[in-house]
Amino acid sequence: MKTKLKSLAIELTNNCNFKCSFCWANKSPRPKGFMSKELFDKIITEAQKLGVTNICLNFAGESTIHPEFEWFCNRVKGISKSINIITNGSNLIKVGKTLIDNNINMTISINGMGNNYEKFCGYPYQNTKNNVSYLLNLRKSKVPTVKIYHHIWQGETQEDIDKYIIEWSNKADGLYFTPSIDNMEWKHGVESFTFVKQRLCRFPFYYMAILWDGSISPCCRDIGAELAFGNVNKNTMAEIFSGDVYNKFREMSNAHKFEDDMLCSRCKLWEYIPTTIKI
Length: 279
Ligand SMILES: C[S@@+](CC[C@H](N)C(=O)[O-])C[C@H]1O[C@@H](n2cnc3c(N)ncnc32)[C@H](O)[C@@H]1O
Ligand code: SF4
Ligand code: SF4
Description:
Elements (H helix, E strand, L loop, with lengths): L6 E4 L13 H4 L9 H14 L3 E3 L12 H8 L5 E6 L4 H10 L3 E5 L4 H8 L3 H14 L7 E7 L5 H11 L5 E9 L2 E3 L7 E3 L5 H4 E4 L5 E2 L19 H5 L2 H12 L16 E3 L2 E2 L1
Parallel strand pairs: 1-2, 1-9, 2-3, 3-4, 4-5, 5-6
Antiparallel strand pairs: 6-7, 6-12, 8-11, 9-10
Helix pairs in contact: 2-3, 4-6
Bound molecules: S-adenosylmethionine and iron/sulfur cluster (2 copies).
């Protein structure tokens, strides 16, 4: 498979203002912190040079709570074909204008409705609805995009999903559903998903996540950074991506033979990828 770094996730912080009960990121014992402006600047300079086409401004955590969040958005403007963020939506009144002005596509995670939503993430549902309306009123065109995303957790019924669709369809540019991840497996409570079989896991060939402290993970499912190797404070992204450790990891992925204690050896996510339901 062709190897080229196309997609970069940058973790501005792994701190979060929510404590969603299903969240794998919150369960991770990784030390918490905030990325420095200097490190972000270094990453963006190199990403532009390498022609990275897709940048996501989050990994674990909630990026909009970074005290320098707006500076990061201004710095990244225009350097890549597609710049995106996934957010819990709680700070849209504060940072919405900056996101729109810098053409950053938004996916807003709303994993339930009403009391269910509040039970899972501890934030008032009505505030989320107000924040999304505020953002959509502020945006004067369909650029950047605003999508609503819900990962369907076990215990949620088809009836819950039907109500959710009535609530959220036609409010933004798209409504998306995927199953939940639990213990490196796909889990969900409804029948609607189909799965596409893959020959090998593709992440190591085009993707890199840079965590707040500069360390690198080759997989967007590795939210606890169990696979992390290399650090952009010591080497360039190009050196790490084409280095021996990454290449060895690609060989293991190609053969699907991993050391027993590696995350990949207990991962059931890569072989059958769910078809995302778009409404
Ligand atoms: C880790 S969060 C980080 C961004 C932001 N804090 C948010 O919640 O949108 C990224 C995405 O992962 C989703 N997520 C969290 N736990 C999950 C799980 N167990 N299975 C599937 N998706 C999950 C969240 O709903 C969110 O859409
Ligand atoms: S808001 Fe995002 S990062 Fe924070 S706990 Fe919820 S899913 Fe996890
Ligand atoms: S096998 Fe699983 S854990 Fe390993 S890189 Fe692929 S998706 Fe990530």
